[in-house]
Structure formats: C-alpha cells, structure tokens
Structures
1.
Amino acid sequence: MSLTVNYYHFLISPFSYLCIDRFNALASKYSLSVNYLPIAPMQVFAETGGVPPAKRHPSRQRLRMDELTRWSQYLGLNKMNLTPAHFPTDQSLGAQMVLAAGGASGQAEAGKLSDALLRAVWEEEKNIADESVLMAAADGAGLVGESLLAQAKESTWVKASADATEKAIDVGVIGSPTFEVNGEVFWGQDRLDFLERALS
C-alpha cells in the first residue's frame, strides 16, 4: 500500500517551483499518492506570523533572492525568471481548479495542473489570474480547461479551497512548499532529503 503525502503549497511560490522535478521523482520512486493542496499565501502569513516578500526587511529580501539564484543555478533551472512579470498575483481561481481536478484525492492530472501553473509564473511570464492562461494550463495537463474553469467557480470549490488553507494552518504549515506524511511535517524544498528519509 502506497504512502500518502499531503503537499501544501502556494501556486505562486518560487520554492515550490524549485522542487517540482525532485518531488515528482520521489513520488515516482516511492509510488506515493500525492494530495495537491494549494493554499492561500496571505492567509497563511497572516495567521502564522509570516510577512509577504515585499514587506520584509531589505536584508531578508536580499537573502531570499540570493537563495533563489543559488538554487536555480545549482538545479540547472536556467528558464527560471527570478523577477517574473506577474508576481505576486491572485492564485485563488487556479487553486480552486486544482482542487476541482481532484487535487485533494491524489489525482495525477491535478498535480500536472499545479506544476503547470507554477511553471507559468516562473518560466513563462504568464499571469495565472488570467482565465485563458488557466484554461490552457488545464488543457495541457490532460483536462478540459473550459469546463474545469466553470466547475471551479462553484461554491463547492471556493469552500474546498478555504478548507484546505484552514487545514494546513491546523497542521502547522507556515510556508510553501510543505509536505506532510504520517503526521510529520517538512517545510521547504531544501527538506526533500529529510522527506525521503521518512519515506524510506
């Protein structure tokens, strides 16, 4: 029986973008069932004492950019734009689409959509608040973008998105990416080694 990982993340997080390939490799290696759970950045920051990047002290902003530069170079992610045209942006409808695609129940297409939206922000200079961008990403993930978009606007998925964020905060999530397995929480793309130790 495969393990289940709850993957809490912001769809606009550069650190979630950095971990896409390595996390997917872990999921494949250990035959994981992954619940893709996009959560609301501003609510998580507000309720856990965090501060959005633009409001951080200049030293914290500089160190954040240094880390992104170092990690993107180390991982060979040459397509990453460290100052994307559409950051920050409203990810709420994208999050609802991921959940409507089965993100909370381990559906692979939901994971593909989540990854596509992160790449849209950090590689492709696209605005994931734009409905045409969302539909194209869903189509590329093997979903029917137009119908998924319409479904995601329903109150069921608005509530599901809010519930996912509240659940994340209850679990102890303070940022993105965060992985939860067997009640243990791992925060950060640089904690994937510890996640693998837990899996093995």
2.
Amino acid sequence: MRAVSSLPVLALFALLSAPALAAGDQITIGLQQEPTTLDPTADATASIDTLMTVNVFEPLVVIDDAGLAQPLLARSWTVSSDNKTYTFKLVEDAKFSDGKALTAATVKYSFDRAMAPDSVNPTKILFAPIATVETPDASTIVVQLKKPDNFLLFGLGQGDAAIVHPDTATNNKTQPVGSGPYKLKSWTKGDRLVLELRADPRGAKPAIREATFRFVADPAAAVAALLSGDIEAFPNVPAPESVQQFEKDRRFKVVSGSTEGEVIMTMNNARKPFDDVRVRRAISHLIDRKSIIDGAMYGYATPIGSHFPPHHPAYADQTARYPLDPARAKALLAEAGYPNGIETTLRLPPFPYARRSGEILQSQLAAGGVKAKIENVEWGFWIGNVFKGDYDLTIIAHVAPNDLGNYARDKTYYNGYDNKAFQDLYARLTETPDRAEMTDLMKKAQAMIAEDAVNGFLFQMPQLGVYKTGLTGYRANSSVPYAPLANLKWQ
C-alpha cells in the first residue's frame, strides 16, 4: 500500500486507468460456427456474412432491422416507372483496404463475376433477373432488369452481392480485401479470427479498434467462456438452457430477438423414398414441434409449418396442416409401398440445435416406422457433401431472409424440389407491382410448400444474445446474417 501511495498522482491515475482504456476499444465475441472461407461471394456458410459483410466487405446497400435497404456504397438510387431500371450513385472516395479505388467499374466487375456461367456464388439466383450492368460514369451504375424483381434491393444487401476488386477477388477466401471499416488481422483456424480497424475508414470512426471472434460450438464451453470473461458478447448463445442463469447475473444483459432462421429437417426430394409426397407427408405427421422446442431449445423458439418467419406481416400459419398422427403416418407409408416402414440416415451438422433436435426426431420418427440412423458430420463435410445433395435427411437453419426463392429452383438445389407450379407462382410474386397481391402470393407459396411437405418444418430460430453489461450497439434482431462492428461501443 505504501509503495502505491508514494507514486506521483498522475502516474497512479495512469496505472489505474490503463486497463479500462485498453478494454474500451476491444471486444471478444463468441460464434458457434467457424467460417469455411472468408469470401461471402463464394460460400453459403452463414458465419461468413456474420464476420465479413459490412465489416470487411460491403454491398451497395445495407439491410436494417426492419428489412429495408439503406444506403451503404450506394448513397442514393432511383427506380424507373416500369421497375426495370435501377440507377445507383456511389459514395465518394470509397476505397478498398489496400488503397485501390472503388468505382462503378468495380461494381460492374463484381456483378458480372457473380452472373458468369462459371460463377461459384452461392446465391447466384439473386442476379438472374439482371440483363445488363452499365457504367455511364465512374460513380453511376445502371442495372437493367429482364423483368421486375421486388426483391432486387434486398438481394443486393446480402454478402453474396459484396463488391470486390478484380485484382484481389481470387484471394479473398483467405486474404480478404474489402471496402469496409475493418480488415483481417489474423485467423487461427479452429480457434479465433481477429479483425482490426483500418487506418482510413470511410465516414465516422468506429469505437472498436479490434474485435476477436472466438469459435465455440459446445454449449458448456460457451457458458464457461462468458462467465470467466474470456468472451464478452455471444450474439446467439448455443446454450438456451443457460439464459435464465445469465438473466439473474447483473454482469450480463440477455436480449431475446427474432431471426430469419427457419430450422428445418430437409428431405432429399430427389432421392427415394422422399421423391414420393406420401412419404414426406408421413414424416410430417410424426413431428412433435413442441417436444423438439422444449427439449432442444428449452422453450425458446416458435413452431413453424412452412418456410416463412412468424414475425413477417405475410405469415400464414401452417403448423396445423399435419397433426401428430403415427397411425396416419404408417398408413401413408403403406400406401406409398412401404408397409414395413423405411430405413434412412439423418446427417447432422455440429450445431447444438441440430444435434439436439435430431436425437428427439429420431425417436419421433421411429414411432411411425421410420428408422433413422444418425450420422454426426463436421461443417466442412456438410457444406461440401450434404449441401450438394449427398444425404437422405438433415437438419439446418436457413438464415437467409426472403428465401422462398430457394423452392423455385430445380433439382440441382440440395433439397431436390422441382415444382413448375411453385416456380410460376414465385415468378408472379417477384414481378407484381401490387403489394396486396404480393402478400397474397406469399401466403399461397407458404401453403404450397407445406402441402407438398417439402421438408419437415420445425421452428424459427430465436436470437438469444448474451452481452456484458455496458456494451451497446448490437442488433437485437437478425433481419440479415451480419453483425456490424461499427455500431458497437463500451459505455
């Protein structure tokens, strides 16, 4: 005590203040899922957008909590009276982290690359309505559509539409170069990724200088890391059973929000016996959503009967379409030619919600004659094999918003669903200028995929965020799967 008190007053003040000042511009954030790559235009893994979109890579627009497009790289835009021509004006002096200028030509390159026949863009369908991209000057982009598309602006706010530079695009998977306020500092695979603030961020300077993302899929480990202070924020904690514990702890704030993540048991519609709608309907009659939500999510989820978020104004509840009925399920299987039931495989990615739900579903399916062998697979295998159609059944959260269009694809998409009637309905949905008709078509689309029992629809994923007291600026709801660091600040 004497040694400390003998220090000069200013030195003592500096000593006591230093840790607080250091913590004020840094943060450690927990994520369940490690990205497979760092390029959002090359892979569908949701954590790529969480980490990279808006922070490192920027699209023309950003999607707010209400799901509306707001200016980002595009400072403004106009739409022609026929809804087929979009003219964007770029912000001034946008630059990539390596100093290269971001111009209209860069945007054209990015769009042309995404639309190319050999494109590996995971949501290439976003660009299908585009006929041409023109650049009358260095700050103007004119996008001409083949036909109106009500979801164009929303699509252009996704990580899949991020603007990249031709000189660095091929290396973005491991050496990302974007126009956002942050850049990659390090990536220790299997452990953590660190983003640091650029020396020359555009606009207002963010308060967070360095953000470390720790990859923690195990629920117990996530809780321990939060309690010990090793992690200061977990936007979607993988341990819903711990929420009440954190709610009672004054060191933390728990925020329960909504997401666009529909958790589904995907059935491979292109593979027998799931190419028969009677088999898919039989499985739907075996799903007890309440038991799954209570057992896997400790009650923190909302049941769904189709692929659509319950918080959306156009939501049409389909949960009563297939009441729990093992006898009816057995009868449908017999009608489809399987009087003794079926044997199948349920491949589960390494996320707690999927593996917990899978164990419950295995028992539920068995009650109706569906014997499902569980195979736990790693994420690399899931994205490289299951997502390419190598599976019978799987469980996954589809976190992309406005993704009814996935059901308008053909058999090349991983669920194998190919329905011309749905494709025609979705085309009308994207083109109609009438908002009331658009809402009506959304409801009909939900009913159609529920009637076809394309998947086993389980629940809407909540966003259960646990944050250290004093942190502000996080998103309570997840209208899109990215989390801007620029808004974060320690009080």
